[in-house]
Amino acid sequence: MKKIKLFAALFVCNMAFLSQSFASGHDEAFLTKRFPVASVTKIDVATAGGSIEVNGTAAQDVIIEVFVSPNNGTSKWSTEKIQSVLDEYYELDIKAENGLLTAHAERKKGAKWSSKTGLSISFRITTPHTIDGQANTSGGSIKLREISGAFNFHTSGGSIKAEDCSGAITLRTSGGSIKLDDLSGTITAKTSGGSVRANDVTGTLHTSTSGGSMILESISGNLEARTSGGTIKVDMNSVNEYVRLNNSGSIDLAVPTGAYTLNLKGNKIETPEFKNFDGSFKSKNITGTLSGGGPELTVKSSQRVNLSFK
Questions:
Q1: 269 has which bridge partners?
Q2: What would the mean pLDDT of 68-81 be, rounded to a whole number?
């Protein structure tokens, strides 16, 4: 993770930026709560119909901001009306106990949804840079920024964006795209219906999508990527143990020049002229070793496969 200078002026500027970026899709916070940093080591966030944003800073408090708006596309409601609907139809639970910060928003049991009672409840949480946690939303996007730890975030209907994060990271969405930038650690990023874009990822990245393309650039370490409905383009800075790519569409893979163990399959395989190759070289299937063998490069496609060295 990038080193962050702990100057008060920078913190103020950072918070102003975060407020502006989140407020672009929300009005001012309906509710704000603060907890001492020392009282929180893990977060558990869940909402049924809004977005979740977690930002790491050098603040002395953990700050939770709750944004509430009608979920029916009509004009804005008054604060009094929102509070009335919240009290009657929703459970809003925000607390810190035994190191766990909980922020949950859900409809009360038996409360049926209607245009007159539907609310979008979103959370923006400012935490220390080092934090563990989990988050789940059934109808909104998820954003992570400048946090390090073990976390598992899931959305059923929105996109996911993670920036400048490290640790054991699991990100899943059933209906949106995934964007990763400046991550390190062990990362799992899966979507059932969107594209995946990653830049500057170090460690082990496992990613898949059932319905979109992938552009993975400046990857260092191990990579496993799979898609059923788009193209895959990969640029590796370095390969530790393996690169495994599987796709029904075309695949482009660029790796540093070096020694590799190859397993390439495709309707058409494009490669530069090999030197010091030992194995089987066919138009649709190449298996063997380059320069005595090394990290595994397994690339399988029912269409074109292009392998290049840099």
A1: 305
A2: 81
